[in-house]
Amino acid sequence: MNPTERAEYLAETYADAILRLSYTYLKNTHDAQDICQTVFVKLLAEPRDFESPAHERAYILRMAANACKDILKSPWRKRTCGLDTAMEVPAPEAADGSLLAAVNALPANYRSAIYLYYYEGYQAAEIGQILGAPTATIHTWLARGRARLKTMLGGTDYERTV
Known about the structure:
By secondary structure, this protein is mainly α. It has helices at residues 3-26, 29-45, 53-72, 75-79, 83-88, 99-104, 108-119, 124-131, 135-152. It starts with a helix and ends in a 10-residue tail after the last helix. The model has no long low-confidence stretch (mean pLDDT 83).
């Protein structure tokens, strides 16, 4: 069976079952469609021979369930929310002289590093992956951004008490 025929066979035979199973795990139609596509891509990239149609069906549904579990336990999913939820929360207004206004006045690289670190809670290595920069560079941007914020906000008279 050529790849086109194989793709058509898989889609006609298993798409509904994969979508329904994925939806029961993820409770989101778009995520379920992504899982369906992921399963089909894996099956087409690495064709397998099965003992019977029942074995093939069980294997494909197990692949879909495992892919759903991977998404559910991913850190990205734990840190994000749906757009409907985000629309309910208004964006903070930056008052003059506020910390947010000072952060917004920083150069883009410092601003994004500071924002992701302090406001979103990412670690430097994760920020490096997001921004496509080495972790050491992120540490430098954070340090320089903090220094600029200290100057902008008049924090030069701070004395540490131990």
